[in-house]
Write the structure tokens for this entry.
Amino acid sequence: MRIGVIGSGAIGCLVAAYLKLEGQDVSLVGRPDSVKAIREKGLQISGVRGSFKVEIKISEQLNYFPELVILATKTQDIEYALKDNISLIRNALILTIQNGVQADNIVAKYLPKENIVSSIVMFGSTYLEPAKLVHNFEGSWIIGWPFDKQEPEKLLSLSQVLNKAFPAVITENITGMKFLKIFANANNCLPAVLGKSMQEVFGDPDISRISIAIWKEGLEIIGKAGIKLVSLPGFPVENITKLTSLPVNQAAAIFSQTMKNLSKEPLYGSVLQSIMRGRASEIDYINGEFIRLAEKNNFHAPLNSALVDLVHQVEKNSRFYSKLELFDKIQEVVQLK
């Protein structure tokens, strides 16, 4: 199978490298800085599978007809990526891996719905600089049809390819899982506001209280919208519901301990990684999804709205907030009880 990975960030580079190591015919599409660095240095990967270099083809646009396209850009960059490569990917199977739930609908504006497979990555990677990344932790790669169910054999064949890089799991309810993944990613806004690693941020139980409040507000909104969350491998729905049912200080202490032990290497989260690279983050498709659902159902999302605004302020002004400034802003809209 000829595979084109469009997007040379933390996840795109990681999956392309591991598929290449397993003998797959894979190439990367990336921005000019990535193309230059990867051509000169190869992909330099360290982390849970050791340190090594992978030589891989990379260009600024596709120059062949792939059978599978792994779309690894941020959600806000999908349309640009599709338009740049549309003539070569009309008949390819398109695999989306973006956070949030909007990616598949965006792709469907340009390509047939029956060619779109949605996925969730449960593994983690940190982009250090062009051509250099850390594989922080392992996890599964969940795939499913986002629209009407298509041929099951297509998913089976795809899973066999992806399984060469990460354990592939087929689901019949990818949408319910993607909404739960929003909860898993919703706290990435806090490292982005503070400009620190996840371990530093969530090692502070006080800040972890905000995390519990984010989840509580999210659950209320999801309930109002009538959306059913579906458990992810290694991240059951009960992780959210049980923790948010505890007294906030107890829940924050448990959350803090869990997050501190996610990775030996510093984790920054996708939102902060984008900011560190001088690019717009995907915050509007993570916490912003709670805001959209709230507005659609005549409800409110004051905490998530405040946090999205803070992230946009960091993007605009290139200045992170202190813990005290964060709490001053948060306490204007919510009581952390």
Observations:
- The CA atoms of residues 113 and 147 lie 7 Å apart.
- DSSP finds 15 helices and twelve strands in the chain.
- The longest helix spans residues 205-225.
- The two ends are 53 Å apart (CA to CA).
